[in-house]
Amino acid sequence: MATPPPARPAMSHSSAFLLPSSAPRTGSADAYAVVVLNQRLPRFAPLLWAPQVRVCADGGANRVFDGMPELLPEQDADDVRLRYKPDVIKGDMDSVRPEVKEYYSNLGTKIVDESHDQDTTDLHKCVAFIAQNSLVSDVSNLCILVLGALGGRFDHEMGNINVLHLFPNSRIVLLSDDCLIFLLPRTHTHNIHIERSIEGPHCGLIPIGAPSTSTTTTGLRWNLDKTCMSYGGLISTSNVVDEDQVTVTSDSDLIWTISLRH
Amino acid sequence: MDVMVHSSSFLLPKIHQPAKTPANNYTLVVLNQHLPRFMPRLWAHAKLRICADGGANRIFYEMPQMTNDQDCETTRNRYIPEIIEGDMDSIRPEVKRFYSNQGSTISDKSHNQETTDLHKCISSIRHRTPSHEKSDLCVLVTGALGGRFDHEAANINVLYVFSDMRIIFLSDDCLIQLLPKTHQHEINIESSVEGPHCGLFPIGAPSTSTTTTGLKWNLSEAKMRFGSMISTSNIVDSEKVTVQSDADLLWTISLRNLT
Fold first, then answer.
1. Residues of chain B found within 8 Å of residue A92, distances taken between Cβ atoms
2. Closest residue to B226, CB basis, from A204, A208, A237
3. Tell me: the pLDDT tens digits for B198-257?
4. Which of B172, B204, B237 is the last residue of a domain?
5. Exposed/middle/buried for A119, CB within 10 Å: 0-12, 13-18, 19+?
6. Do B240 and B160 lie in a common domain?
7. 3-class secondary-structure state, position A66
8. What is the largest CA-CA distance in chain A?
9. Which residue range forms the structural domain that includes residue B104?
10. Which of B153, B161, B226 sits opposite A165 (nearest CB)?
11. Is A135 a residue whose pLDDT tops 70?
12. Which of A169, A189, A214, B100 stands the most exposed, by the fewest C-beta atoms within 10 Å?
């Protein structure tokens, strides 16, 4: 008689970090860090600034400097810049404007200058930096929220998605105005709590990098049942969340994506 | 193994066509996102222009900002798509009426909810292209990247499902296309309009052996997979890049400011 495979541990996910700060937080992470890459800020960027560590990757500092006052036009620009300042600006400093770097440096932001390293992307460097420098008290339950990782140059987007695969044990969420994505590693079964007030209903499960021979879900309008997914064949896109909890089990790492409401 | 030759001559102004272009039969498909700034240039090259549903809204409202025409009406009368195709749930009634009156064929596929608008368009392009013209055909698509990630993923899947067709996705920042593993690839670089940033991605399945020439960081029988090494932020170092791989790869190159 064959022994059944050991049950995989469960991993819970929640987008509670997107709720307005007055709402009760039932997030699955205790600590959050925000990384801002060099693209236009999404409209909800101010909502994410409360967490413990805010890192701008090089030109991401320009985006925060210009973008935060634009998103909060009824407030005084210098007040906004002070309240929404990064803790760290990291990178080779070839994109950040000199006056932006000086402005934040005067406010106490740490500038971590480094020579250009071809082998890793800006996001990879920031994720490694956050983990290595104990900037957050409890790294084991840390969730890194990333702005500016999607869209723009396609090779950057692919490099950023590869960071999710390179750090499968870390919680890293890529956010844009339209959606969020994160990795569901095959080592776990996944419980995704849906915050209906801010996300959904459109969702998808994408096998980037390798096919899946068996994926099973609950909670979606078109559930998968030990279904094969691959590029060139079926991938789950334009699906719909039908319940408050979606579960996913797969033999392959999958990218989960859900649309964000405006 | 057969060689497949690629060139971005459709990005050049129409009069500046190089002597050997692999395709001279361009079809343009416009999806429902902001038009790239160089859309008039693509329109001029295309023999056939198809708007996928809300793509028609984009032409109607955004083209006037890209031309030197004196008024919107002049621009709108100049840029009439031959076909508007899709499930028609995004196109505005006034836009549909305008193009219908101007002679565009409205191809309503709302009964088919199984496939995306892009898939429907590519499928019907393939059906209406005679076999002897298929090797010259190149489909240029705008609006396939960015926006909702599941839409982008589904659009990229169309490249894999129709891997025997030349289909190129274009945005303001870059272009992407599939390099099927069935061929060796020669990519002629038009350095006045594209580069230097480029990359190669094994999105569907890993590669155990990829070899390139013409890049700053060439690959030599290299393994590539997500979760390990993929070629991002590479640089084109030559007028011709060659790629040979045991896996289907997505090629991307950045676009220079074309306006």
1. none
2. A208
3. 999 999 999 999 999 999 999 999 999 999 999 999 999 999 999 999 999 999 999 998
4. B172
5. exposed
6. no
7. helix
8. 71
9. 21-172
10. B226
11. no
12. A169
Using the predicted structure, report yes or no on whether residue A29 has a pLDDT greater than 90. no
Q: Between chain A and chain B, how many beta carbons pairs sit less than 8 Å apart?
A: 132
| A198 and A73 within one domain | no
- Cis bond before residue A46 (omega within 30° of 0): no
**Chain A, nearest residue to B144 by Cα:** A151
- How confident is residue A4, by pLDDT bands cut at 50, 70 and 90? low
**CB–CB of B202 and A159 under 8 A?**
no
Q: Which residues pair with A202 in a beta bridge?
A: A240
Estimate to the nearest angstrom the gap between the alpha carbon of A247 and the chain centroid: 19
Radius of gyration of chain A (CA): 19
Residues A172 and A215 in one domain: no
Same domain? For A167 and A50 the reply is yes
In this predicted structure, the answer to whether residue B6 has a pLDDT above a threshold of 80 is: yes
Query: What is the total count of domains within chain B?
Result: 2
| A161 shares its domain with A252 | no
Q: Which of residues 88-127 of B touch A (CB under 8 A)?
A: 116
Question: Looking at chain A, which residue has its C-alpha nearest residue B205?
Answer: A210
Which phi and psi angles does B66 have, rounded to 5°?
A: -105, 0
**Chain B nearest CA to A102, separation (Å):** 28
- Asked if residue A73 has a cis previous peptide bond (ω within 30° of 0), the answer is no
CATH number for the domain that contains residue A66 = 3.40.50.10240
Count: domains in chain A: 2
Whole-number pLDDT of residue A160 = 97
Q: Does residue A1 lie in a domain region?
A: no
User: Are B232 and A230 inside 8 Å of each other by CB?
Assistant: no
Confidence of residue A83 (pLDDT cuts 50, 70, 90): very high
Helix, coil or strand: residue B236: strand
Residues 6+ apart with CB under 8 A from A184: A11, A190, A205, A248, A250, A253, A254, A255, A256
Burial of A134 (0-12, 13-18, 19+ CB in 10 A): exposed
CATH of residue B35: 3.40.50.10240
- The predicted-structure confidence for A159-201, as pLDDT tens digits, reads as follows 999 999 999 989 999 999 999 999 999 999 999 999 999 999 9
CB neighbours of B183 closer than 8 A, spacing ≥ 6? B1, B2, B3, B4
Judgement on whether residues A188 and A166 belong to the same structural domain of the protein:
no
Q: B161 contacts in A (CB within 8 Å)? A: 232-233
Are residues A190 and A110 located together in one domain of the fold? Answer: no
The C-alpha of A71 sits at a distance from chain B's nearest C-alpha, in angstroms, of 20
Give residue A147's domain range: 29-177
Q: Is the CB of A239 less than 8 angstroms away from the CB of B150?
A: yes
Give the mean model confidence (pLDDT) for residues B108-128. Answer: 88
- Averaged pLDDT for residues B167-173: 97
Q: Which of B147, B171, B201 sits opposite A158 (nearest CB)?
A: B201
Partners of A208 on chain B (C-beta within 8 Å) are 153, 203, 226
Q: What is the mean pLDDT of chain B?
A: 93
